[in-house]
Amino acid sequence: MRSIESRPQSIDAYIAACPPSVQVILSKIRAIVRSAAPRAEEVMSYRMPAFRQHGILIYFAAFNKHIGLFPPVSGDGELERAIAPYAGPKGNLKFPLDQPIPYDLIERIVELRVTQDGLQGASKRRKRG
């Protein structure tokens, strides 16, 4: 989709470099994350759009045939079963571009990651305190 040489400096630039049909998908994912994690900061990390609070909540990226969502999801058995059809070899998720994107699952993933991040942040604060 983009060359190795291309290094967008913002999520806006990353989305703009994608084909229009993919821009719509990425923009919707971005809106879902913003809604589910309103305090998260938008960053570019590993050349991918990401959202960070205490740590990275989620990365998402466009590939030729799918949208990738990282990191692997764990900690909610029901959600893990729901996303199993999209799991790649390392547990990262692949949403094929020729199928409907499961935005509801993405929202559930982000909500879980926000909860996990909050617990992680509280643990770090206790250790420092």
Can you tell me about this structure?
- By secondary structure, this protein is of the alpha+beta class.
- The protein has a single domain, classed as Aspartate Aminotransferase, domain 1.
- Helix content is 43%, strand content 20%.
- The chain has helices at 11-16, 20-36, 77-83, 103-128; strands at residues 41-45, 48-52, 56-62, 66-70, 93-96.
- Strands 1-2-3-4-5 form a five-stranded antiparallel beta sheet.
- α2 (20-36) packs across α4.
- The longest helix is centred in the last third of the chain and has 26 residues, at 103-128.
- It starts with 10 loop residues before the first helix and ends with a helix.
- Mean pLDDT is 90; it is low at 1-5.
Strand order of the largest sheet: 1-2-3-4-5
CATH class: Alpha Beta
What would you say the CATH architecture is?
A: Alpha-Beta Complex
Order of helices and strands: HHEEEEHEH
Calculate the terminal CA-CA distance, rounded to whole Å: 46 Å
TL;DR of this structure?
This protein has 129 residues and is α+β, with helices and mostly antiparallel strands. The chain has helices at 11-16, 20-36, 77-83, 103-128, and strands at 41-45, 48-52, 56-62, 66-70, 93-96.
How are the SSEs placed, and which strands pair?
Layout: H1 11-16, H2 20-36, E1 41-45, E2 48-52, E3 56-62, E4 66-70, H3 77-83, E5 93-96, H4 103-128
Antiparallel strand pairs: 1-2, 2-3, 3-4, 4-5
